[in-house]
Amino acid sequence: MAGFRWAQAQCVNILETDVRLTADGVPVLIHDAIVDRTTDGSGEVGEMTLSDLQKLRADRLFPGWDGDVRIPTLDALLTMDDPFEQLLIEIKNDLPDRLQRLIPLVLEMIAQSNVADRVWVSSFEYDILRQVRHLAPDQQRWLIHAGAFGNVVDLARDLGCGAVGMPMHLLTGERGRAMQAAGLTVGGRNAIGPEGARMLAACGVDAITTDFPSQIGEWLAG
Fold it and tell me: 89 pairs with which residues across the strands?
């Protein structure tokens, strides 16, 4: 949560985060399948309970953050005061039995929250997006695209996605306009520094994704 608050201070108005399931069935927000890289512990998220995970400090890469530096739960994000304007919640690929439990749980928690209209569910995985569409047809879906540009519009339509996140090396103004003309929200991924942000903005994207918001803070503020 300390990291989310820090991002808001950098003028970030859309938060993208990743969700996984603990051994005791709690959706938590962490990118990696294991905790070793980002915390002071080790082990697989899916084999640890929430109590196990919340004993860890998740500020290994960013020591010195103020506030709560534990691995947060999805519930903590959905109920936070002063929420983000929009949330992108990426369901990470996992073992089939975990996904079978995680996907409906995430959708139920979003639907019951006060910020449901602000939330997109995203994934790289087509099967996950199809399951989301089956279980919650009205849930906004965001395709994180990693392949060639080619058939992305048809693919998004097939998955019922209203938005596509494209890596910046595949984006041009012409491609961005083509997706927008098809009714898609276009996100440009992997911006590094103000130069990357400016390039994506020049392509006319609706959103810019970066792992380094501090590097484009002045550009965002301006």
Answer: 17, 121
Helix (H, G, I), strand (E, B) or coil at 96: helix
Question: How far apart are alpha carbons 184 and 156 in whole angstroms?
Answer: 8
DSSP summary character for residue 136: -
- What are the tokens at 183? 């009714």
Give dist(CA 140, CA 44) in Å, integer: 29
| pLDDT tens figures, 156-176 | 999 999 999 999 999 999 999
For residue 93, the one-letter residue type is: N
Tell me the CA end-to-end span of the chain in Å, nearest whole number. 26
Contact 196, 205 (CB under 8 A): no
Per-residue pLDDT tens over the stretch 52-70 = 999 999 999 988 888 999 9
